[in-house]
Amino acid sequence: QCSVDPIGTITTKVTAFPATAALCDWPFSDRPCSSTARLLYAGRDVTLPSTFSFIDCRTEARCGRCILSPICGWCLQSASCSTELSCSAASLDFSKQDCPQFRSLTPQLGVNTGGDSVTVLGELFLNSTGWSVTFDNSTSAPAAWVSSSTLTFVTPALPGKVGQVNVTLFLNGVQYSDTPVLFTLSEPPTQVATGSNVALGAGLGAGLGLLALIAAVVVAIIIARRRKEGMFIQVKEPDYQLVAFGDFLQAKFKMPKDNLDILAIKLLDKTHGLLLSIEGGTSPTEADLVARALTYIYAAYPGKAEEAIQKLVSGEISRTKQETTLFRQNSMASKMFKFYSKVVGIRYLWKTLARFIAEINHLAAEATAGRGAKSGESLIAVDIEIDNDKMVSKDDQELIKEANILQLNLTCQKVFNACRTNLNVMPFEFKRIFRQMQWQLLAKWSDMEIVFKAVGGFLYLRFLCPAITAPHAYGLLENPPNETAQRQLVLIGKVIQNLANLTPPGAKEAYMQSMDNFYDKNLDRMREFYKELLRDDVID
């Protein structure tokens, strides 16, 4: 028998007795308390007393303290502390590791007449129609779910409100995150003329109106001219969901719900036993399809895709004996990251690279059509080929190559600068994966250079550079780039990837030695980029 003494003496029967343990059902206690547990046989103690605690998860109102308990976690749907079993039968909205986060609003200011579109950034947002925000706990507005880290809403009218107000996030009427975020309200701009100033105001208004009319005509002429000359490039924002999921938006086959629930529970188990079994048993010919399917299943549940990728990354680090072979193979971890990066990172890509890619493709098309570069067009319009064997013109080849090297330097610098300066909009999911990677790598090799190369092997090799060289697959172009642009993008991708690997471009291909100067100039900047990406406060 197992004897537990929370209040009085309660005895429960041992249900199983393996060689090294006695298993029994825990008795019920009507309040939290510490107790003494003993194992008895034939009414006599056979073990020394040990401490056993009864915990009531419901008494903890704050998520941060709740997840510190060994058996409690945060139930996202009800925004309450609970056990995993009590939260939901399938444990799909239960978080033991992280708390919901309401991080920021973009933009952070608007007019008090309402109508401004605002994006909410955070973590662990459930796919639900019950989202809303309140302003100073009074006026509320519905919010729409976009992803596990993004919501959107339109500001309501708040007459007379000026200055900072607290915005609080709710799910089904329950406050979802402990901390509100500030939003600044202002009066809409007005132009009013009164009293003796009416005549002066009318005169000035007429004069300004005439100037505005002239300015509008000039702008229209400039735009028309640029359209005619091919300089006015429109960049169309893609359907992010279509880019991320592609043909997987259509069901491949239907699985009975009971079977699907069982699969979800097994995949979401904290040990990741099924995931590891799938990793070890998947043939190379099926790895891409399996990794893609696993990624989409995990991505449906907040934080679970990250956990799965982190588990696979951790295993790969543990198995690797030489750091030079780390993440060199297309493992299940790297394949899942490739697909997951599309799910959470397409918006970041579009904001960072879309304009550059569109301009390169447009100007390459102009050159191919024989129109060439026109006065005032971007410098990207000139050729950037630096491989003698691929250069079209053989006349004055060295002189042309020198100009091309300069242009490739400038273009690569623009692309690299865009990646660095847009770090603030990079998905937090990436940062958390890379941060855990850093802890494990430092524990094994104590070398930040190894950490930098590993992060580059995921962020650049499996995300940024593939988007540069195949922009149509990432929503940066509607169609594949033309042949000239494709070659330019391949060269840019090679230079940026070598920089990310902390390896001179000329180390592998002799003709790329001309870009070693770009590498030397930006090597420390790349290291600083990695350090900034891995900063604790950037993630937490």
Give the helix/strand layout:
Blueprint: E1 2-5, E2 10-12, E3 14-16, E4 23-24, E5 33-41, E6 44-45, E7 50-54, H1 63-66, E8 73-75, E9 80-82, H2 84-87, E10 94-95, E11 101-106, E12 109-111, E13 117-123, E14 131-135, E15 139-147, E16 150-154, E17 163-171, E18 174-175, E19 181-186, H3 198-229, H4 240-245, H5 257-267, H6 273-281, H7 287-299, H8 304-319, H9 332-368, H10 397-421, H11 428-445, H12 448-469, H13 483-500, H14 516-533, H15 536-539
Parallel strand pairs: 12-19
Antiparallel strand pairs: 1-2, 1-5, 3-4, 5-6, 5-7, 8-9, 8-10, 11-13, 13-16, 14-15, 14-17, 15-16, 17-18, 17-19
Helix pairs in contact: 7-8, 7-9, 8-9, 8-11, 9-12, 9-13, 10-13, 11-12, 12-13, 13-14
Describe the structure.
By secondary structure, the protein is of the alpha+beta class. It has helices spanning 63-66, 84-87, 198-229, 240-245, 257-267, 273-281, 287-299, 304-319, 332-368, 397-421, 428-445, 448-469, 483-500, 516-533, 536-539; strands at 2-5, 10-12, 14-16, 23-24, 33-41, 44-45, 50-54, 73-75, 80-82, 94-95, 101-106, 109-111, 117-123, 131-135, 139-147, 150-154, 163-171, 174-175, 181-186. Strands 11, 12, 13, 14, 15, 16, 17, 18 and 19 form a nine-stranded mixed beta sheet that branches. Strands 1, 2, 5, 6 and 7 form a five-stranded antiparallel beta sheet that branches. A three-stranded antiparallel beta sheet has the order 9-8-10. The longest helix is centred in the middle third of the chain and has 37 residues, at 332-368.
